[in-house]
Design brief:
The protein is an alpha/beta fold and 365 residues long. Helices cover 38% and strands 20% of the residues. The protein contains eleven helices and 15 strands. Strands 12-10-9-8-6-7-15 form a seven-stranded mixed β-sheet, sandwiched between helices. Strands 2-1-3-4-5-11 form a six-stranded parallel β-sheet, with helices on both faces. The protein has a two-stranded antiparallel sheet with strand order 13-14. Helix 6 links the parallel strand 6 and strand 7. Helix 2 crosses helix 9, helix 3 packs parallel to helix 4 and helix 5 runs parallel beside helix 6. The longest helix is centred in the middle third of the chain and has 17 residues. It starts with a helix and ends in a 5-residue tail after the last strand. The N terminus is likely disordered.
Length: 365
């Protein structure tokens, strides 16, 4: 699927004639400038780390053709808009903004710079020069729930969550459904933080959940604090975003990892060859954007094989986390949310506003 040199040169000529190429040098003459904004400090694991690996993948795949840069620890809101605008003014032709709270600032800056392409990661608003992309994190969450259900002795898991948006609710519900698929009595206790990245708050929430009987933890926040807390207390935890065995070698039972490299390379290459379009991508296990693995030493081989087999089933379409196979799926208020034999479509998943039976918590903090 990669173009040869002659085709690339022909594509470059087409690019120069496109409206997006106005006043831009030919891609063969100067590198494509790519800017990325990170919502938290750059570290060795976590959400930002995975997108940093994506940036590095662009550099590795397109040597000499791209020049990438990043700005880290940028708060959502007015500060994000300033940074995104600065990147556009600095001549970046592709700007990647991987945080839900960057969506509105991205849209505002995009209107000012119609010749610049933007990738709004986890956003849903699009324009001619703004594409959106996200991953089906819930597929990995379901599989992690299976591991948690097999490993928990207390039948209680704790979940440290950032904000009650659909993406987070999908993860909590899929994790619960996966856990209860092997342990029907399992309960999941949720603590909302209203923060994506606050290690002190994340640690405090993890400690509270363990005090309430949770012997396995999951989280949807940006640091490794939950993993470290589980390691400290001798409990188990599910790593998110990245493999976190470096900070929790005994606590980690499995990791749900995000893979952005292929997508980022594809989108940068599309700008270079003039084929970039505003698209909406939602990929999961099948597309290689989500992977479950990196099992910890406590997890029996049989459990690992079971989970990897279910991962293959998801990739093949044989298993859908939000499908009610044997019985109705109810929310934690007792209402049927997925009727037996039915599955939620993408529109329903994207608008999720309920918590599954077995979750102790509310949609709003």
């Amino acid at each position: 699927m990669y173009k040869n040199l002659a085709a690339a040169l022909a594509a470059a000529c087409c690019f120069l004639s496109s409206p997006f190429a106005h006043a831009q040098p030919a891609p063969s003459q100067v590198p494509l400038k790519v800017g990325i904004v990170y919502v938290a400090p750059l570290g060795d694991a976590g959400w930002v780390h995975q997108h940093e690996l994506g940036r590095q993948a662009i550099e590795a795949a397109l040597p000499g053709k791209v020049k990438t840069s990043y700005v880290e620890n940028v708060a959502e809101g007015p500060d994000a808009e300033r940074v995104i605008r600065d990147l556009a003014r600095q001549g970046n032709q592709l700007i990647i903004t991987p945080s839900f709270g960057y969506m509105a600032p991205t849209m505002r800056v995009a209107r000012e710079f119609p010749q610049v392409r933007f990738e709004s990661i986890t956003g849903y608003q699009r324009a001619d020069n703004v594409a959106t992309a996200n991953a089906r994190y819930y597929e990995g969450r379901y599989l992690a729930g299976v591991v948690a259900g097999r490993m928990s002795k207390s039948h209680v898991a704790g979940y440290v969550a950032g904000f009650p948006i659909p993406e987070v609710l999908q993860g909590i519900n899929a994790f619960t459904l996966g856990m209860r698929s092997v342990d029907p009595t399992a309960q999941v206790k949720v603590v909302w933080l209203n923060q994506w990245f606050d290690p002190a708050l994340e640690r405090d929430a993890a400690m509270r959940l363990m005090d309430q009987g949770a012997d396995v933890l999951a989280f949807h926040t940006g640091s490794t604090a939950v993993m470290k807390a589980a390691q400290e207390r001798g409990r188990m935890a599910v790593a998110y975003h990245s493999d976190m065995r470096q900070v929790a070698p005994d606590a980690q039972i499995v990791a749900v990892t995000h893979r952005w490299g292929d997508y980022y390379v594809q989108r940068a290459r599309a700008v270079l060859d003039g084929t970039w379009k505003s698209t909406d991508t939602w990929g999961g296990v099948k597309e290689g954007m989500i992977r479950v693995g990196d099992f910890g030493p406590k997890v029996p081989k049989a459990v690992q094989e079971e989970v990897l087999a279910r991962q293959q089933d998801i990739a093949a379409g044989r298993l859908q986390p939000f499908r009610a196979a044997a019985a109705d799926v109810r929310d934690n208020q007792g209402q049927v949310v997925i009727a037996r034999g039915q599955a939620l479509d993408d529109g329903q998943i994207l608008k999720m506003n309920w918590l599954a039976e077995g979750v102790q918590g509310r949609v709003s903090p």
